[in-house]
Amino acid sequence: MARVAVTNRCIGVCLKYLAYKDGKIRAGSARLLAAISQNLPDVQEKTVNCLSLLLKLASEETDDEALRYEI
């Protein structure tokens, strides 16, 4: 499933919605990003560039549910 998500531009969609106004949507995109990069080294190589963005977003996050998945 993770390979399909990556080939279907899922990483880009997740990144787009990490800045969304609704905390639940931010949490969902962070959770999906974590799930697709969990155990696949080639997918991790693609998502590793997102780590600095996630840390920046987490430092500014006010919604606890979104923060749970961003870190």
Overall description:
It contains 6 helices and no strands. It has 71 residues and is mostly helical. α2 runs antiparallel to α3 (23-36) and α3 runs parallel beside α6. The longest helix is centred in the middle third of the chain and has 14 residues, at 23-36. It is globular, with a radius of gyration of 11 Å.
Structural class: mainly alpha
User: What are the secondary-structure elements, in order, as H or E?
Assistant: HHHHHH
The best one-word shape is globular
- Spatial separation of the terminal alpha carbons: 23 Å
Count of DSSP helices?
6
Q: What value does the average pLDDT take?
A: 78
Uncertain ranges: none
Helix content: over 70%
Quaternary status of these chains? single chain
Radius of gyration, whole Å: 11 Å
Number of beta-strand segments: 0
How much beta, percentage-wise?
A: under 5%
Q: Topology of this protein?
A:
Layout: H1 2-7, H2 10-17, H3 23-36, H4 41-47, H5 51-60, H6 64-70
Helix pairs in contact: 2-3, 3-6
List keywords for this structure.
0% strand, 71 residues, globular, mainly alpha, single chain
Short synopsis of the structure:
It contains six helices and no strands.
